[in-house]
Amino acid sequence: MNWYYSVEGHALGPVNEEALEKLALEGALVKDTLVWRPELEEWAPLQKLHPDLLERVRQAQEKPVPVTKATAPVPLSTPSSNAAANGGAPGESHKEKPGLFGRLFGRERN
């Protein structure tokens, strides 16, 4: 059965029953949305013409979301210090030697 629905005064459709339900599940159709099908004389709110659809949508929206196995947050590792590898003590910050520019002009990089 084909349905038409109204959005901001514009008739859209036709859509089949499955598509109508999908639109309702997505929130595009609400209880006051005007709907119509060729057998009807005039447009009417979805809640009047298709209350069972709204009940299915309500039940689907109330259904609890299945819980999946939660993954524990992965702790961030502390960056290892290169100071020990460069002759400094562990935990001691490593300061780079001045580059060519610094050596030529007596300035160190920050």
What does this structure look like?
By secondary structure, the protein is α+β, with helices and mostly antiparallel strands. The chain contains 4 helices and 4 strands, in the order ββαββααα. The protein has helices at 17-25, 46-49, 51-62, 100-105; strands at 3-7, 10-15, 34-36, 44-45. It has a 4-stranded antiparallel sheet with strand order 2-1-3-4. Strand 1 (3-7) and strand 2 (10-15) form a beta hairpin. The protein is elongated. The protein starts with a strand and ends in a 5-residue tail after the last helix. The mean pLDDT is 78.
Keywords:
four-stranded antiparallel β-sheet; 28% helix; 110 residues; elongated; alpha+beta
Can you summarize this structure?
The chain is α+β, with helices and mostly antiparallel strands.
Specify the oligomeric state.
single chain
Largest β sheet strand count, sense and barrel closure: 4 strands, antiparallel
Quick check: average pLDDT? 78
Radius of gyration: 33 Å
Structural class: alpha+beta
Order of helices and strands: EEHEEHHH
Count of β-strands: 4
Helix content: 25-40%
Ends: how far apart?
A: 73 Å
User: Unreliable runs, pLDDT <50, ≥5 residues?
Assistant: none
Strand order of the largest sheet: 2-1-3-4
Treating each run of at least 4 consecutive H or I residues as one helix, how many helices?
4
Q: What is the molecular shape?
A: elongated
Q: What is the beta-strand fraction?
A: 5-15%
Helix/strand layout:
Elements: E1 3-7, E2 10-15, H1 17-25, E3 34-36, E4 44-45, H2 46-49, H3 51-62, H4 100-105
Antiparallel strand pairs: 1-2, 1-3, 3-4
